[in-house]
Amino acid sequence: MGHTAKLKPDSMNQDEIFSSFITLAIIWQVRRFLDTRNRIPQWDRMLQRFWIVNVSFVILSTAIDEDFPLRLIWLFALAAITYTVWLIKDNQSARTLLIALAPFMFFMAISKIIQDVFPHFAKAHDDFFESINGFALFWLIGFFIVANRQKKAQVKIDEERALEAEQRRVIEAKKQELEYLVAERTAEITRQKEELELALVELKSTQTQLIQSEKMASLGELTAGIAHEIQNPLNFVNNFSEVSIELIDELVDEQVKPHRDTELEAELLTDLKQNLQKINYHGGRASSIVKGMLQHSRTSTGQREPTDINSLCEEYLRLAYHGLRAKDKSFNALFSTDLDSSLGLVSLIPQDISRVLLNLFTNAFYAVQQRQKQGGPLGYHPTVIVSTRCVNKEAVITVADNGTGIADDVKQKIFQPFFTTKPTGEGTGLGLSLAYEIITKGHNGTLEVESKVGEGSKFIVTLPG
Amino acid sequence: MMKILVVDDELDVKDLFLQRFRREIRSAQFQLDFANSGEEALAYLEGHKSEVILILSDINMPGMSGFELLRHIRADFKTPPSPVVMMITAYGDPDSQKQAVELGANDFLTKPLDFTVLKQKLHDLA
């Protein structure tokens, strides 16, 4: 190409051979450049075979030095190249390559055809064809460089994409790892939650048991008091029935006498009737104490009933006192009541309030007993005073003692469950916390404490009427 | 005639004693009086100085206990005839008994009262 075209067969042949080499080089380059082996493997194999055939033809034609139809072959090769590039036209560098190759091939083909068909015309315009071909070659080289750059850019982009893909893969892997961890953690948390729920159920049942045992403990405190309280009416029942037998004997004796004292007989009968009434009354007293005890040990019905707070206070004050007395025989305390008779009946849950009262009374007696044991001041009289008042339509029960008193830091804790100042095993630490619950939650009332160490304590229960 | 003061916070004690000692009362052997508390008993004693011979007192009473009453009696009524005091309690424990004796009780009885024994004791005193 870069020489003057002659019509002599050998120069012609040389030209053809050169063109063929260029074509072969182009095919080789295109295959390498476009990586056809991987992109279009089937076509690539065809191209490879074609290339080998082509090479052998070129060698053959060089060897035999004959005007072999090489032109046809490389024209065909050009078409193959164009087709190859066309096949992967989606690729940016392939498109650029197509733009690079197309004019070159077109002018090569046209000029060859014109040289063959119109040799004179071609010869006359030899310079023109030369420059066209030259221009096409520059075009080819120029665009090849552009395509190469594009390819490099493409490779860079591909590398970046590959890197991104790799990063994505890593992220994905990490994500999966995290998800696995999350699932594992979730399972663990679920398991812990189930364990906690189980523990909660156990705690609730333990709490119920503890409340029951507190009731039983307070019942234990009560038993001695109850025994004492029952003993008194029973003594009366026994005594009055015995006396009644004596009275009847006397009456029978009187009836058989010749001179009956009718006045005495009438008196004896009146006494008998009175005694039977007393037996009845004291029997009732005993059974009401037993009833109270049963009521105390029973689970609260939660049912409000119109209740005489004053009699409840008196009853449980005695029970609490005798309960402590039974445990410690040397203990003695003054206790008195100052009850407001205008209080009337108050709607409350008797079992619950009696539990509160018993607890407050027992605590008060315990406090005075402790102070007595510590050796109170000269002339110290352990005293517990219970008073009831009706203030602003509210029932106010005050339990005051002159016992040890409560220190301020202890005062903050006395309503907490399980807090106790008693030695281990003596108190459950639930008495006041239960009392607080009963008064505040059960009756919408208040339970307050005023206390001074060495002077005594005062617990004030307020119940809305 | 023996004067007896019974001190107990239980009101029915009065009726019981009156009936238990009906024969002795009728035959004017005993004269029974009653007080419902230690305070009442002391007031009674103030009004019947040198009259009272025997006091039967419960120990467990609201307000002034039997022991305190006993202490008062021994402190305030020293002029003879100093009353004979018998303490009655539901708790027949040795401690209470010891305390009663230390405070100057003449005798110690446990509830439920055995009236036969009590009568015997009173007759011995009379």
UniProtKB/TrEMBL annotation, chain A:
Superkingdom to which the source organism belongs: Bacteria
Transmembrane segments: 46-64, 70-88, 97-115, 127-147
EC numbers on record: 2.7.13.3
Pfam family, one: HATPase_c
Catalytic activity: ATP + protein L-histidine = ADP + protein N-phospho-L-histidine
Alphabetized GO MF terms: phosphorelay sensor kinase activity
Name of this protein: histidine kinase
Domain Histidine kinase: from-to ranges: 225-465
Keyword Phosphoprotein on entry: yes
Coiled coil (UniProt feature): 148-209
PANTHER family: SENSOR HISTIDINE KINASE, TWO-COMPONENT SENSOR PPRA
Keyword vocabulary terms for this entry: Coiled coil, Kinase, Membrane, Phosphoprotein, Transferase, Transmembrane, Transmembrane helix
Keyword Nucleus recorded: no
InterPro entries: HATPase_C_sf, HATPase_dom, His_kinase_dom, HisK_dim/P_dom, HisK_dim/P_sf, Sig_transdc_His_kin-like_C
Family matches, as PROSITE patterns: HIS_KIN (PS50109)
UniProtKB/TrEMBL annotation, chain B:
Coiled coil: none
GO biological process, one term: phosphorelay signal transduction system
Pfam families on file: Response_reg
Residue numbers of 4-aspartylphosphate PTMs: 58
Gene3D superfamilies hit by this protein: 3.40.50.2300
Keywords, ordered alphabetically: Phosphoprotein
Chain ranges of the Response regulatory domain: 3-126
PANTHER family: RESPONSE REGULATORY DOMAIN-CONTAINING PROTEIN, STRESS RESPONSE REGULATOR PROTEIN 1
Designated name of the protein: Response regulator receiver domain-containing protein
Organism: Spirosoma fluviale
